[in-house]
Amino acid sequence: MTGVCGGAVTGSSLEIMLEGMRSESWYGRERLEASPMGTGLVTHGKRDPTGTETLSDGSRFLAIYGTLTNRSELGWSLRDTCDRVLSEPKQALKVLDGPFILVVADATADRLVVATDKLGTRRCYFTNEERFVFGTSVEPLLTHVSSPTIDHRGLIDLVTIGQVWGGRTLIEEAQSMPPGTVLVYDGETENVTLNRYWEQSFDDSAPPSVSDLTTEYRRVIRDIAGTVGTDQQIGVWLSGGLDSRTMAAALCRHRNLRTYTYDANPPTGTNPELAGRVADTLGVPNEQVTLSADRFVPVLEDGIEIVDGMIPWTAFLNLSASFQLPDQPDIMLEGSGQGGLLGNDVWQSDLERGTSPADALYRSHHFVDKETSKDLLSVGIDPMRTYEEETRIGGATEFNGQVLGAYRRNFYPYGEFASNAVARSQTGTRVPFADGKFLRMVSRLPRDARTGSIPFTRGVVPYGTARFKLGLARELNSGLERIPYERTGVPPARPLWQHAAGFVLTTAVDRLRGEATYGGDTLAGEWYRHHDGLRRRVNALIDDVCDREWASEDAIRHLQQQHLDGVTDHSKPLSCLTTAEHWIQTVLDK
Predict the structure, then answer these.
(1) Does residue 578 register a pLDDT over 60?
(2) Domains of the chain, earliest start first
(3) What is the pTM of this model?
(4) Which of 58, 92, 530, 540 has the fewest CB within 10 Å, making it most exposed?
(5) Measured between alpha carbons, how far is 240 from 49 in angstroms, rounded to an integer?
(6) What is the pLDDT of residue 330?
(7) Where does residue 513 fall: left (phi above 0), alpha (psi -120 to 50 degrees), or beta otherwise?
């Protein structure tokens, strides 16, 4: 797995950490040291030569894992960046945009600075248990943790939320840096301080227009395209949805690209047909990648280890297609986060029906209901505890700001972007949206720009999309607004109410036909029932989970039997438990 690691380590200690990171034949490696501190990078080498930047002069070093999209605009050299981050880290980082983890060290001051970008597009963990070390994978840190302890709070979050929030991991001794955060290690005192340099406010008193948003969207796509070498091949995942087509349309203005499609979300055959029409309209090649259990099983355990056991395998199943790409591109542009940032994350009904900020946050995102989580894990922790704590963090005092702030601090870095590590293990990646001006604009979207719900459905049945997502597809004026949106069956050029009707109608018809639908049985659930190889592997992990002191065997066996009998799809909770079990066996138990 590409990434970065280091800390108060040099020489053989740093080398051991680097060796603990997953490797592929084409990966490159680089070490920087300013004794007693060091860092190491694992890169895509010639495939993505602009995906990292480094500077070293013996007493200082700078390592950027990712890209800074506006360094040239600021007029900063790498030396300027190094000096500014060391002298005034919060002020310097506040103006830097791009998807990155940034590491700067000064041996004369015995000081090391690590920073995440404004959205947390790349996870970074740290521990100060025996000595200070950090890294983009948990496993290399364990060389400096003599007795790692399973974090039961992390387990309950994994099952309830489908992600591990609040900066926790699956072990108590390692933390995950939040987005927009700077860590400063003082070698003299061995103290670590962690501060936010980027705080998001959600004031919708002056909302942007769709035209304003489109201008900013075009800019961030242009800026991210500028970080890719002209001889590198760019790829984009293309579906019948809106986010991938708008990204492809905006990117085509600057670069040639290749697109790829798999049939999922749900697998009805609609995505490949619509993606083909989008590709033809844009004049770009499109290749379909087969998603199958036969292809998934061999990379199941690799995927779990890549995401450090903190994203269930059902959530990264689609991304396993990254291992099967024909004519592997050098860089994949990531549309992750786009739909949510444009109003599709926290629905209007979540904010309106939530009895408290924590309840609204739970309504907007939970993987497994809280009652089931308590039944499955005998850890004595309330599944709502993390929701309650996270909505109290930050400076927001009003309801919407508390909910949206907690969601953005957690869902994107610990879920949406955390799963992208699977894709990043095979290709270079770029996320365009870690940009201050763009984030400030989307934070001003009014409540009625968020996904609404069909009246009298208690907030359960959505309109199918959000107003600004449709508006962006229209404003780009690329011809794609006349191609139906896969989720609703209606072209973006049509008004929002028609998309609401289309979503309800197409879902109902597909269910009558017995076809997969949104909210129906999952692809993962079907594979677990019917594919011998996957069923055997998952069942073996369930057997092992049931032997853990923190697991409730009767409740787990009940869900397992119901699923295999075809009564209910329980692949979500079972995938959380088996993901954690494999990671614990592979990383901790060994």
Answers:
(1) yes
(2) 3-196 (3.60.20.10), 210-345+416-503 (3.40.50.620), 523-589 (no CATH)
(3) 0.95
(4) 58
(5) 32
(6) 95
(7) alpha
